[in-house]
Every structure is written in structure tokens, then in C-alpha cells.
Ferredoxin, 2Fe-2S
Amino acid sequence: MQARVGDTVMRTAVAAGVAGIIGECGGCMNCLTCHCYIPAEVAERIPPASEDEAAMLDVVALAQANSRLCCQIVVTEALDGARFEIPEWQG
Ligand code: FES
């Protein structure tokens, strides 16, 4: 599936039926069902987490330093070919 620039990674994943990404709150950062891990080569292509997102990530079970909420990541041309990791326990 081709992601559309301007959509979020969460909406793209949900539309593609990616297991482990639910997006229950629609992207308003209160469900944590869009948690993913960001590979280093992708992290350098996206803005860092906002303070609000970082605060939410603090309560994610098994969060890692590279955890993000993919509802907060907007698809841009810079993400062409990017891959995101979904924790095994979410799938
Ligand atoms: S979709 Fe709910 S926090 Fe991301």
C-alpha cells in the first residue's frame, strides 16, 4: 500500500490492516494503540516527539528509547521507503 503524504503513519497502517496498530482514539493521543518502535534510519527523518507525546510514552508498557506514537508522525516525502517496527506483544 502506498502511503499518502499528509496522512499520519497510524492512519496509513490502519488502512493497510497492519496488525498491532489500532488507532482507537483516532490520533488524539489518549489510547496508545498506535505505539511503535522507530529504527535509527527513520528517526533522523522525522521530528522528535512533542512533550505531550513523550509524556504519554512514559506510560507505555515496555516502551523503549525509540518508542513513538505513530499517530503523531505525518507521512512526508522524506519517509519514502521507511519501515516501522511494531512490538511483538502488540501484534
Ligand atoms: S491513535 Fe490513539 S494515541 Fe495514537
Observations:
- Residues 9-79 form a domain with the Ubiquitin-like (UB roll) fold (CATH 3.10.20.30).
- The longest strand covers residues 35-37.
- The chain has one domain: 9-79.
- The two ends are 19 Å apart (CA to CA).
